[in-house]
Amino acid sequence: IRRVLLTLRDSLQTMFNAIGLCRQYPRRPSFEPDKYIPSTLLANSCPIPTHADAQVPGSSPGPPYPFSNMTVYRLIAWMNSGSHQKSEAEVTRLVKDVIQAKDFNPKDLERFSVRRSLRELDNNGEKSSVFFPDDWLAKDIALDIPSKSKDDQARSFNISGFHYRPLVSVIRSAFADIQASAFHLSPFKRLWKDSLDGHQERVFDELYTSDSWLEAQDSLHRQPKEPGCSLERVIAGLMFFSDATHLATFGTAKAWPLYLYFGNLTKYARSAPRSGACHLVGFLPSVG
After folding, report:
1. Residue 163: strand pairing partners
2. What is the pLDDT of residue 142?
3. ω into residue 66 within 30 of 0, thus cis?
4. What is each CA distance from 144 to 98, 147, 153, 159, 214, in whole angstroms?
5. Rounded distance between C-alpha atoms, residue 183 and residue 135, angstroms
6. Model-level pTM?
7. Are the CB atoms for 221 and 233 separated by under 8 Å?
8. What distance in Å separates the CA atoms of residue 284 and residue 124, rounded to the nearest whole number?
């Protein structure tokens, strides 16, 4: 007796809109994120994680790294900002913004050295204590660098000081955020229909409209479900980006931050400068 396995899919195709576009879902989506996206879903700035005990209520925040106190920081910042020739306005600004600041303490300037402060600012932090939030980890990485000849073995290089956030915790945090209400959890094909002759063409405009995403989603649904779990199984599209960043307008200190974007969010919201869609997940150590 032959056995026939019949797979039923609750597919859905929307109507063509005014410009001839429609969506073709292989599985009926649980919700439509683009139906209504209020401006409150897009943050004005990325949230900055802080220590729970980093600051006592009513106290002043600590100085930016690597300055030992706010007095030295304010003096160096004043020296390296504004015009090269300090005018009367610059001196007035020195008095009001630095000397008369509530956190300015002349005692902090004992044994003060401009050269030493600038050197500490340019230090890469290998021997200094750099404080990261509790969810950050540090790890040494071993890289195998291939040689010119295929007969020679690859040389192993150990790179220390790679700080990162575990991706699982980042994904959980992103999907728990209000911005996740705009995530596309169900991939689809976008079709365009010519109003003149009626022929249709495939449109590729987002990650979740690609064949790779559709195939990955189909493969995910073919896998057995977790025992006792009735949650919807979806894919998180991870997009990584990194580039050297100068840390200040003075000095030579720089860093290689590693950023993460979620492809589930439309590119029109994801690429907005103040969308808050960028997640800082790591710092690449410099080996040069």
Report:
1. 138, 283
2. 87
3. yes
4. 50, 9, 9, 11, 34
5. 24
6. 0.63
7. yes
8. 12
